[in-house]
Each structure stands twice: as C-alpha cells, then as structure tokens.
Design goal:
InterPro entries: cNMP-bd_dom, Extradiol_RC_dioxygenase, Glyas_Bleomycin-R_OHBP_Dase, Glyas_Fos-R_dOase_dom, VOC_core. Residues 7-132, 153-271 form the VOC domain. Residues 77-138 form the Cyclic nucleotide-binding domain. This is Glyoxalase family protein. The protein has one domain (15-215, 286-304): 2,3-Dihydroxybiphenyl 1,2-Dioxygenase, domain 1, CATH 3.10.180.10. The longest helix is centred in the C-terminal third of the chain and has 13 residues, at 227-239. The chain has helices at 18-28, 91-100, 165-173, 227-239, 298-304, and strands spanning 8-15, 32-38, 46-51, 60-65, 78-87, 107-111, 114-120, 126-132, 153-161, 177-182, 185-189, 198-203, 217-224, 248-249, 253-259, 265-273. A hairpin with a 7-residue loop joins strand 2 (32-38) and strand 3. The protein has an eight-stranded mixed sheet with strand order 2-3-4-1-13-16-15-14. It is globular, with a radius of gyration of 18 Å. The chain is α+β, with helices and mostly antiparallel strands. Helix content is 16%, strand content 35%.
Length: 310
C-alpha cells in the first residue's frame, strides 16, 4: 500500500472565459490568484491558479480557459463536486455574498453530519462550502473576505462513477481508508492528512458518461512531499498495472498522471518547489510567467491573451 500521499494537491478544470473565471475566484470567492501562466500544450491558453497566500497544496483550484469552448456535459467518469471549508457560522455571509454576485445553483444541504452550501461556477461547475469547526489552515484575506469567513482550502471532492469497486480499491491502495457511507455515497479519508484529505464516491450506474468541456474537471491531483516520494508512488502504481506517465516538470511542481478504472484522470504532484520559485510571495500571480519553451512567444501571447482585469 502507498503511504506517501497526504491528500489533494490541486483540482484543474476547464472554463470559457479567463476574465470571468478570474473575477469569480478572486473577487467573488476571495481566493488569491497565485500564478498567471499558460497551458504547456496550448500556450495560447492561460493556466490560472487560485488558492491561499502561497498556493499551499490542498488549497489550489486551477483553470484552463479555452475561449468559446462548449460547456461540458455532467456524467460519470469525472469529478462531480469540489468542496471548500469555511469557518463554522459563516453561511449567512456567503449566502448573501454569492446571491449579490448573481451566482447560480445556491442551496443548502447536509451530508455526513456537515452543513453545506452548494453553488455553481460561471460554467456550471459544481462547488460547495462546508462549515468546519476546527480547520487550522490560514486563509487568504487580501481580496475582501475577512478571516472569520474566508475559505481555508479544499475539504474534499466527489467522484461520479458507474461502478465504485475498482476505484475504491485504488483509493485504498493510495492510502485512503473508507471512513463512512451515507445514501449510497462512500467516503474515504487519509488519517493525519493535509486537511484536504477526503474523497467521496457517488455511484451512478444509470448515468451516461461525462463529456469534457467548460465547467468540467480535467484532472484531480494528489500531494506528495517531494520527487523521491513521487517516484516511490509511480513505481508502486506501475507494479500494480497502471499506465503512468514519466515525471513531467510543471515549473511549480513535478507531475505524473494515470487514468483510473472509473475514467477519472489522477495526477500525483509534488509540494516542491512551489509558486514562489519565480515570483516573491508579495507579488504572486501578477506577472505573466511562461514555461521556458514558450518564452519566445511572449510578445504574441501578451497581445493575444484576454486581459484578466476589465
């Protein structure tokens, strides 16, 4: 069994408009944009990262905004809902803030003994806030949301699958334990994880497969401390029969990828070197940072990429 994984590292999704995406996560949700760069494989498309002050693994939501991309079709074989923690008693603040911002899909609920506030992102993305009594993670408060209400980081993510069996066994192999079940949803967690250490599996045998597009999660990434631990995980997965990519340098972390039995794309990402490797902490996410192989495209990209601020 793998014991190097500490919880989530980041969640990466698709969007249609970079400016709308930036306004939603920075202005409405109050997260910090910690990096403004481009897609390694499509440099004419941004890769935007939002999180806490330094982009701590377990707090980072990232997006590929493809202009004019069609909206995705929800279904099985994908991440369903991404959940963030907020302090206990802050739902009144968030309900008012999200309503004033015109956010859709707003409703309250409860699961596993936790209060939830569900809402949709600009492209129909599925999100929820979870009230947490004792989340020690420090929030980012620089975008107008005070410490008493600010998002701490990820709480969990749900996987929508036609059959939970093989993926449930994979999670157990990755160090997760089944800690609960409710209304057909299986809950897995890592004891002593990084706070973003819960995965729920929703089994939907009669639902069609998802179609990737705006509002869809492209992949979900799990955190390991460093490259040594990552190589240990890669070796273990390959010995179990998974087809895992070579290690890929993503500038701010190293990554490996593999497709799960349920169809979801998993990534294992390192906590090192972090988002401050090419910007000081005070100015994270301000300048356009380009991977070295695309540096020569800067004049073109600066002219073509959509300005993030109106």
């Amino acid at each position: 069994m793998i014991d190097q994984i500490r919880g989530l590292h980041h969640v990466t999704s698709m969007a249609a408009s970079a400016r709308t995406n930036n306004a939603f996560f920075a202005d409405t949700l109050g997260l910090r944009r910690v990096k403004k760069t481009v897609n390694f494989d499509a440099p004419d498309v941004y890769h935007l990262y939002y999180g806490d002050e330094v982009g701590t693994p377990g707090s980072v939501m990232t997006y590929f905004p493809f202009p004019h991309i069609a909206r995705g079709r929800p279904g099985t074989g994908e991440v369903g809902t991404t959940l963030f923690t907020v302090p206990e008693g802050s739902f009144g603040f968030w309900s008012e803030r999200l309503t004033q911002a015109g956010v859709e899909g707003l409703k309250t609920g409860a699961a596993f003994g936790e209060n939830r506030l569900y809402f949709s992102g600009p492209d129909g993305d599925g999100f929820a806030l979870v009230e947490a009594k004792d989340d020690p993670r420090a929030p980012w408060t620089g975008n107008g949301v005070g410490e008493d209400h600010a998002i701490r980081g990820f709480h969990s993510a749900s996987l929508r699958l036609r059959d939970e069996g093989a993926t449930a066994e994979l999670l157990k192999y990755m160090g997760y334990q089944q800690i609960d079940s409710q209304d057909g949803v299986l809950r897995f967690g890592i004891l002593g994880g990084n706070g973003a250490d819960i995965i729920d599996i929703e089994t939907m045998p009669n639902i069609n497969g998802a179609r990737l597009g705006a509002g869809s999660v492209h992949h979900i990434a799990f955190a390991v401390e460093n490259r040594e631990r990552q190589l240990e995980v890669r070796k273990a997965l390959m010995e179990t029969g998974y087809q895992v990519t070579p290690v890929i340098d993503r500038d701010y972390f190293w990554a490996i990828y593999f497709r799960t039995p349920g169809g979801v794309l998993f990534e294992i990402a390192t906590n090192e070197p972090g988002f401050d490797r090419d910007e000081d902490t005070a100015h994270l996410g301000e300048a356009l940072k380009l991977p070295s192989q695309h540096a020569h495209l800067r004049p073109i990209l600066e002219e073509q990429l959509e300005p993030l601020e109106a």
